[in-house]
Each structure stands twice: as structure tokens, then as C-alpha cells.
Amino acid sequence: MTTQTTSQAPTTRGTPVTFDHVNKRFGRTQVLHDICLEVPGGQTTCVVGPSGSGKSTLLRCTNRLEEPDEGRVLLGDTDVTDRSADIDAVRARIGMVFQTFNLFPYRTALDNITLALRRVRKLPAEEAAERARTHLASVGLAGLEHRRPGQLSGGQQQRVAIARALAMEPEVMLFDEATSALDPELVKGVLSIMRDLAGQGMTMIVVTHEMRFAQEAAGQVVFLDHGRLIEKAGPDKFFGAPESPRLQAFLSAVT
Ligand code: ADP
Ligand code: MG
Predict the structure, then answer these.
(1) Ligand 1 probe mutation, 19, 31, 33, 205, most atoms within 8 A of CB
(2) Which ligand is located closest to the Cα atom of residue 181?
(3) Which of 47, 130, 194, 221 could serve as a FRET partner for 205 with CA atoms 20 to 30 Å apart?
(4) 179 lines ligand 1 (CB under 6 A)
(5) Which ligand 1 atom sits closest to the C-alpha of 32?
(6) Which residues contact 90 (CB under 8 A, 6 or more apart)?
(7) Per-residue pLDDT in tens (0 to 9) along the chain, 255 residues
(8) What gap in Å lies between CA 250 and CA 103, rounded to an integer?
(9) Would you say the CB of residue 26 lies under 6 angstroms from ligand 1?
(10) Ligand 1 atom 21: the closest Cα is on which residue?
(11) Does ligand 1 lie within 6 Å of residue 31's CB atom?
(12) Does ipTM top 0.95?
């Protein structure tokens, strides 16, 4: 799917993601308990919850950075958890953005983006560079393509990471606390790019502590606690009329 603001047909429905009775243990610790969740295509699903509640693990089950012990994860019609699934093909359909950017420190912003385009997508150098420039411009970084990560602010680095993921033209974007490592004044710029992306109909699963972002950009918000999906609702209900005492307590602590 394209991420250009102008070329996105409003009728496009993105790829849905389905978690079907997902269980995950690390040793004897069960970190995901029977998670069932529909992530509708073309919408943003925000996942919130206390530290250690299993948010990252859930996200990582989507592209099999973690393998569920039981249950299935579907990307569209593809069973990601099927042992015979072509995992490289699955990962090529999913972009992921981490708290810590994970850029190559000795490569320029441009090279960080062209690398996978050339190696994985097999684009010729010029075409890869052209696409990278387009995506850098779309996250407000035109002109900074030759800087290395160390010569960019945290917010700019995260925007390079987002541009890198988008340049691969994924069907689904995963964000794991993408703004948690940023200085407060840099958070806004990254969130506004994520908000634009949500508005363009990208399927997104966003683990975040930014409750205002969830309120404004999410189609649904999910609360995890101790590896259980406790509550799921549209943002108005989730924040305005939370049902479970645990979610009520969480929200009054963080908002
Ligand atoms: P969150 O992202 O909500 O903070 P995580 O998904 O990172 O939570 O972790 C959930 C639980 O699983 C935590 O108790 C954490 O310590 C544990 N955990 C996460 N990854 C591993 C791992 N690779 N090995 C063992 N335990 C892990
Ligand atoms: Mg986490």
C-alpha cells in the first residue's frame, strides 16, 4: 500500500490482523493469556497497559519475533504462526518501529532506508534512493539525507526509522512505544506523522503511553494487564466510561 497522502484511495481497506487464542510463556511465566483480538484493516488499534503486561510480546507475535505457544496470528488470510509460513514474506508485509530507533549508526539517513530496498526489494540503486528521498521528505526530513543518526535529534532519528519502514510499503505498521525515548519537545512531531498515517488508512497497532494520541487516532483501544486482555472499546468509551476497575485505576494513574 502506498503511503503518499495524495494517492491513497479513500476506499482502500487495509489488511486486518487477528489474534486467535494466543498464549505465550517464557519458562514458567505466562505472559499472554488466551488473547483474542481483531485488529480491523485500515484502522489504528492502540494497546495500553502497565509495564510488563505483555504489550511488546503481543506486538512481536505479529511478525514472529516471538512465537506463541498456542493460538494463531493471522495477517489477512495468512497464518503467521503456521510453521510452514514463509516468514520473510510475512515480515516484508509488516513495518515495525521501536522505542530505540534501531538505525545503523555509521550509515546516513538515506543509506539506512535504501539498504533494505536494495537487498530485500532488489531495487536498483537510483530507484531506491529516489524512493528513500520521497519518504524522507514525507516525514519532514528533506535535505538531511546525508546525516548519520548521531547528527540527528532523537525525533529526527525516529522519523528516519518510520520512513525506512514505510519505504518498504508495508500493509501493517507496528509501533512499540515509538515516542517513549524522546525528549518531550520532540514527541509531537513523531506523533503527528503517526496521526497522518492513521488518517491515510494504514493498519496500525500502536503500543503507547500517549493517551491523547490513543483518544484522537485510535479506532479501538485495548487494555492489557498481567498478560490478559481486560478491556477493549472505541476511544470515547474506553476513556470516558471504562468498565473494569483495573482499567479505571490505570487511567486515573496515567491521565
Ligand atoms: P510490556 O511491553 O507490556 O512492558 P513485555 O511484553 O515486554 O511487557 O513483557 C511481558 C512479561 O514477559 C514481563 O514480565 C517480561 O519480564 C517478560 N519477558 C519479556 N520478554 C522476555 C524474554 N525474552 N524472556 C523472558 N521473559 C520475558
Ligand atoms: Mg514493552
Answers:
(1) 31
(2) 2
(3) 130
(4) no
(5) 10
(6) 63, 64, 75, 78, 80
(7) 444 444 444 445 799 999 999 999 999 999 999 999 999 999 999 999 999 999 999 999 999 999 999 999 999 999 999 999 999 999 999 999 999 989 999 999 999 999 999 998 999 999 999 999 999 999 999 999 999 999 999 999 999 999 999 999 999 999 999 999 999 889 999 999 999 999 999 999 999 999 999 999 999 999 999 999 999 999 999 999 999 999 999 999 998
(8) 33
(9) yes
(10) 26
(11) yes
(12) yes
Which amino acid makes up residue 22?
A: V
- Give 178 Cα–ligand 1 centroid separation in angstroms: 17
